[in-house]
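Exercise 7b. Backbone tokens:
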């Protein structure tokens, strides 16, 4: 390979010699993979927009309520106290991503990542519609500011701003739910001024990303892209160029590649896949479609660029399984099974009883000692639960502030109570006491804490 051939290694493809931005004008993709990707992206977009509206028995399907530290994921409620279960879920998810990447490379990036879906399937499509394909865009951008250019840019950026605001608000629905959002937008702006300004700022960031920063998120910012070097191996199935078949390239060469550079023209990150696996490749498959179309034109078999592994190119079709992804699959199965088990067997309520800070004990005239406690009960179910607290370990009397201990669904009950125990019952100045939480006469949880006395 000549020095000229490896110049792509010197700097990111979208950067010039002086470090300035080189705008990527990507040709509009066309072909079966692009159609499949468009259909898949419609489902992803529908899920993104529709998930916060889905209810199961009147309860949200997804709600990431950070303010109340309550998360509803696929209908299951997680509280801050469920950190362990959430950590298991996160670990399973990370391991799944690792397993998926080892096996199929950066497929997530090109097909399911919201950044790519919005850029390629929403913003880029609108751009093609208003400004035309890549050559027209280049001509428009490099030409003078004519009336046509001003109008096209004005329309495009107005639509982009509108979509960015819509995106931010859809994003917001995941965190506050549609009902709360609706109340907020109908209330006076002054009541939610800081929230409104944050919404505008986030919309501004989205607009800047999709209008100007674009593919640099995938090629320079995203940490997942950087992990490819350690996750991929020779059996990973990725978008790859069949160099055995394609080289030597050129119109008169012996290889099938006619060096038309159409695969480069269509690439949204601007790379040449013929240079081998590169960090910038998001496995979008646009070059697969484009090269297949070229191969059809020159009457050669399709698949010069295809989904395959290094092993597949070298030795023909081989299995996608290797020691690494087999091991990851076993660990993932164990971890996920443990998560499901923990989720299914977690108690319906979570109780915390602590002595009120700053108070010790009180000696009463009737020969009893009393301690004051703060009680917190989280109801993790979708039903209202009537509760009752009893002292299991000793004979004593509990006087609760307020009458009812009915805990609403997915809510937290907080109160204070006083526990009276006769002096004769106490053997030391710090006694362990055990409470039982009952619902309809059935013991559903126990809780141990301390009782102090003289
Ligand atoms: S599109 Fe296919 S034939 Fe054209 S340069 Fe790329 S690999 Fe070669
Ligand atoms: S090289 Fe091909 S698959 Fe990779 S990003 Fe470019 S067009 Fe998409």
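Sequence design result:
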């Amino acid at each position: 390979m000549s020095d000229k051939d490896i110049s792509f290694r010197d700097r990111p493809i979208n950067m010039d010699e002086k470090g300035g931005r080189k705008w990527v004008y990507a040709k509009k993709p066309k072909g079966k993979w692009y159609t499949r990707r468009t259909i898949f992206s419609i489902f992803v977009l529908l899920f993104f927009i529709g998930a916060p509206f889905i209810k199961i028995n009147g309860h949200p399907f997804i709600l990431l309520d950070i303010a109340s530290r309550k998360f509803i994921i696929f209908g299951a409620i997680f509280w801050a106290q469920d950190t362990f279960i959430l950590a298991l879920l996160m670990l399973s998810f990370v391991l799944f991503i690792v397993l998926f990447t080892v096996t199929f490379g950066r497929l997530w990036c090109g097909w399911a990542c919201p950044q790519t879906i919005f850029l390629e399937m929403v913003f880029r499509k609108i751009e093609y519609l208003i400004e035309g394909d890549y050559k027209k865009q280049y001509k428009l951008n490099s030409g003078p500011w004519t009336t046509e250019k001003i109008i096209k840019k004005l329309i495009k950026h107005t639509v982009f701003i509108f979509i960015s605001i819509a995106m931010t608000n859809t994003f917001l629905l995941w965190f506050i739910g549609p009902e709360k959002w609706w109340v907020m937008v109908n209330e006076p702006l002054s009541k939610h001024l800081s929230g409104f300004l944050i919404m505008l700022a986030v919309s501004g960031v989205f607009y800047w990303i999709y209008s100007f920063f674009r593919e640099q998120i995938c090629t320079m910012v995203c940490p997942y892209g950087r992990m490819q070097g350690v996750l991929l191996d020779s059996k990973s199935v990725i978008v790859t160029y069949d160099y055995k078949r394609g080289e030597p390239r050129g119109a008169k060469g012996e290889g099938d590649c006619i060096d038309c550079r159409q695969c480069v023209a269509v690439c949204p990150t601007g790379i040449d896949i013929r240079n081998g696996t590169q960090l910038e490749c998001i496995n979008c498959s646009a070059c697969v479609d484009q090269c297949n179309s070229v191969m059809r034109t020159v009457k050669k078999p399709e698949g010069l660029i295809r989904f395959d592994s290094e092993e597949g190119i070298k030795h023909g079709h081989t299995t996608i399984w290797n020691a690494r992804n087999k091991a990851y699959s076993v660990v993932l199965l164990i971890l996920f099974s443990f998560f499901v088990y923990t989720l299914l067997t977690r108690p319906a309520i979570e109780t915390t009883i602590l002595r009120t800070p700053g108070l010790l004990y009180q000696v009463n005239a009737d020969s009893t000692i009393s301690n004051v406690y703060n009680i917190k009960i989280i109801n993790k179910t979708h039903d209202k639960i009537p509760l009752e607290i009893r002292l299991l370990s000793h004979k004593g009397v509990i006087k609760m502030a307020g009458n009812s201990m009915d805990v609403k669904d997915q809510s937290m009950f907080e109160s204070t109570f006083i526990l009276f125990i006769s002096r004769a019952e106490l053997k030391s100045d710090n006694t362990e006491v055990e409470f039982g939480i009952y619902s309809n006469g059935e013991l559903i949880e126990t809780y141990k804490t301390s009782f102090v006395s003289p």
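Instructor comment: Residues 244 and 314 are 8 Å apart (CA to CA). The two ends are 88 Å apart (CA to CA).
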